[in-house]
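[step 3/7] inverse_fold.run input=structure_tokens len=159
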């Protein structure tokens, strides 16, 4: 119905042929150390290093909500750092997820996936530590990615 394939497994190990982009949501304060990023960092050091450098240089680049950074980690694998959450804590302004930022970043991801001829692989972005609801994120993925003919696989970790 949504055009998204759901599987159990590890989104850092997509088992399809061709170019792949592993996408995840980052915060806008330079924090990297909990959630899915730990699995990414165990597999590849480059996405964390690139994200931290991107955040450090934010006065002179496009870092911010809705931005996307693409880091090549293997000949046919890229990681997309999508800035889709404000801060890291739930507080008076609610949960950290920002749906409009995820939507904007997904648009940038779609452009890159089309350019690379890539499929996209991700956990349920924005729904872990960011506190988002999949019922709000899934339609954005369907519109931005599936609507452009991009194959999307969402990974649920565990048994």
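[step 3/7] decode complete -> sequence:
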């Amino acid at each position: 119905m949504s055009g998204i394939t759901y599987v159990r497994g590890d989104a850092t190990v997509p088992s399809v042929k061709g170019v792949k982009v592993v996408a995840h949501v980052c915060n806008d304060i330079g924090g990297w150390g909990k959630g899915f990023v730990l699995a990414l960092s165990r597999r590849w050091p480059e996405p964390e290093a690139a994200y931290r450098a991107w955040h450090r240089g934010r006065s002179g680049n496009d870092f911010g909500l809705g931005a996307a950074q693409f880091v090549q980690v293997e000949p046919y694998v890229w990681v997309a750092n999508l800035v889709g959450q404000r801060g890291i804590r739930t507080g008076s302004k609610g949960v950290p997820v920002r749906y409009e930022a995820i939507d904007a970043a997904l648009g940038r991801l779609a452009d890159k996936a089309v350019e690379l001829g890539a499929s996209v692989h991700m956990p349920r972005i924005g729904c872990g530590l960011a506190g988002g609801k999949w019922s709000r994120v899934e339609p954005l993925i369907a519109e931005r990615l599936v609507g452009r003919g991009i194959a999307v696989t969402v990974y649920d970790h565990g048994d």
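[step 4/7] annotate
The longest strand covers residues 77-85.
The chain has a mean pLDDT of 95.
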